[in-house]
Amino acid sequence: MRFRPLLALVLALCLTLVTACSGGAKAVDRANLTYDDIHNTGLANDCPTLPDSARGSIALDAGSKYQLREICMHPSEVFVKGEPANKRQEAQFVAGKILTRFTTSLDQVYGDLAVTGDGLSFNEQGGIDFQLVTVLLPGGEEVPFVFSSKQLDAKADGAAITTSTDFSGSYRVPSYRTSNFLDPKARGLTTGVEYAQGLVGLGADAEELDRENIKRYLDGTGTMELSITKVDNATGEFAGVFTAIQPSDTDMGSKDPLDVKITGQLYGRLEQV
What we know:
By secondary structure, the protein is mainly β. 11% of the residues lie in helices and 42% in strands.
């Protein structure tokens, strides 16, 4: 009986060594997994990918209609541009830690792809095209933002999808808060009040308090680059990386937005319609 704890320790050590020697966990194809295999594991937040050998190209006909479908964008790094330490320095992007778990990726995004005389033109139409994300900065500040691809209007050179195709364009960033949201003092846009009761004596309509008291629904504009590095011409799939720069949350107009830079993995599929 006294040897059972020692035996358990030896077995645990052996399993650890076997796992380490085998290279640890391997990538899993989500198509072969059930709901129970994915639930609460974070795998649903990952984008599909293509092997490094996918180095083909897909020629496009100017007279045909195409769509980019099943677009997935998984953020891997987020940077926030803060205020410089003094006026002599320029503001720099600082890496933040993503606090949001399992719900940061855009998925099933789709839109029309047109072949024009100037190249390729992509117009986003829908999908899971926004996510609420919060990052933690080194100083302890938490920065929320809406990671979005809504109404992305992106252009690219050429008349084919290749491993050197780069789309770039702008998109809409919706407000982090909606019209029915109430702040801790019950101030809101369409519900609640437009001033804080405790500030009446100070003059609740004073200019310096307007931004806090009167809520506004403010959209923003971001810019995005989609760089395709892998193409499977047999299936129409492509993969690569993306970079987006957009504003952070403004708390319905009460504070100035910060510039947020998001980078990560890209996946999608070309379909003729």
